[in-house]
Design a protein that fits this description.
The chain is globular, with a radius of gyration of 19 Å. By secondary structure, the chain is α/β, with parallel strands linked by helices. The chain has an eight-stranded parallel beta barrel, surrounded by eight helices. The chain has 13 helices and eleven strands.
Length: 321
């Protein structure tokens, strides 16, 4: 049976609310929770972007059952991979083994803040591959020294190593990232229900490993209100990864989405309170072969109502898929 997750979306809520929401999500019966790792929101209307690693530490202490995961962290520019290994190890200890480290090649939106040029997709994936290698070695214990193409590590060691170490997931969007995920990751992450991505992952060693997807949704008893909110907060969503990974800030995302209409958003994102439309959105991932699907409820002030509805109606319906 597919596992249904909840997204702590830091771009639309502050740190205290994110922790309160994941506590509610655990009580509502969600199977896992994922958290975005951003420095900027995509749009100014979203209005937030706290430091996710502090949020995860607080969430680990405030919850007792629900697994936690980054969706996703870029370990190549804003963070050095040796520092990411320490962050992940600490959250794994705080959560008593409930953490998964989701990694990706990053977005200019977040990584430009340290002042480095934004490299090509090929270079970003090469950096990610080397970063995963470093993180794995640090999880393995002992001192690590590494002098590679992109990174140097000088006698690093995790002094509080978790046992077991957190699983590593890699986000994919094409053949090169699928090959990397298949050979180097414990699970694969994707934001579209593309069976071809999973087949490429399997072809490089991914067979039998979990595959995690994510679906934006916008619950509201009034579908018109839901559509308006989804358009305000998520009109950037349809540009695609190749565009979104290159844009430098909220103003650029706003410009890229200036011709997106509310009806365009409603056609791509289930809005309102129809169980059938929400189930249909998740069904695409289930039929593509995903084992885990995280829902993103759009709207800072709508979380409580969504989580109550999810507990009473949505989760039972999705578990019948």
């Amino acid at each position: 049976m597919v596992k249904i997750g909840y997204t702590m979306m830091g771009e639309q809520a502050g740190p205290r609310q994110l922790v309160e929401d994941v506590v509610h999500a655990e009580a509502a019966g969600f199977d896992f929770a994922v958290a975005s790792d951003h420095y900027f929101p995509w749009l100014e209307e979203q209005g937030h972007s706290p430091y996710v690693w502090s949020v995860l530490g607080a969430a680990a202490q405030a919850t007792s059952r629900i697994p936690l995961m980054t969706y996703v962290t870029c370990p190549t520019t804003r963070y050095h991979p040796a520092v990411v290994a320490q962050k992940a190890a600490t959250v794994q200890l705080l959560s008593q083994g409930r953490f998964t480290l989701g990694l990706g090649s990053g977005e200019n939106l977040n990584e430009h803040v340290v002042g480095e040029p934004w490299p090509s997709a090929e270079v970003r994936l090469d950096r990610l591959s080397e970063a995963v290698e470093i993180i794995r070695r640090l999880f393995g214990g002992g001192y690590v020294t590494h002098h590679g193409t992109h990174y140097d590590v000088d006698s690093a060691r995790l002094w509080d190593p978790p046992e077991p170490p957190p699983p590593i997931g890699v986000a994919v969007s094409g053949p090169t990232s699928c090959a990397l995920a298949g050979r180097a990751a414990d699970l694969v992450i994707a934001v579209e229900p593309d069976r071809g991505l999973l087949e490429a992952f399997d072809a490089h060693g991914g067979t039998g490993k979990p595959r995690v997807g994510q679906v934006p949704v916008c619950y509201d008893p009034d579908p018109a209100v839901a559509v308006e909110r989804a358009h305000e907060q998520f009109r950037w969503f349809g540009s695609g990864w190749k565009v979104n990974s290159e844009l430098p800030g909220p103003a650029a995302f706003d410009a890229a989405a200036r011709f997106v209409r509310p009806e365009d958003v409603a056609a791509a994102i289930p809005c309102g309170n129809s169980l059938d439309s929400f189930a249909e959105a998740v069904r695409g991932y289930v039929e593509a072969g995903f084992t885990d699907v995280a829902l993103v409820q759009i709207g800072e002030k709508s979380q409580d109502a969504f989580l109550r509805w999810a507990e009473d109606e949505l989760l039972p319906a999705l578990r019948r898929l």
